[in-house]
Amino acid sequence: MTNDKQPMNPKYSLVVPVYNEETTILELYRRMQAVMDELGEVELILVNDGSRDRTLWLLRELHQKDSRVCYLSLSRNFGHQIAVTAGLNFVRGQVIVILDADLQDPPELIPLMVEKWQQGYQIVYAQRTQRYQEGWLKRLFAYVFYRLLRNLADVDIPLDTGDFCLMDRRVVDILNTMPERNRYIRGLRSWVGFSQTAIQYERDPRFAGEVKYTFHKSLSLAANGLVSFSRIPLRLSTYIGLLAALVAVLMAMLVLYWRIVAPSSPLTGFATIMIAIFFLGAVQLVSIGILGEYVGRIYEEIKGRPLYVLSEVGGLHDEGSTQRTSNSGV
Ligand code: UDP
Ligand code: MG
Question: Structurally, what CATH architecture does the domain formed by 12-230+305-329 represent?
Answer without folding.
Answer: Alpha-Beta Complex (3.90)
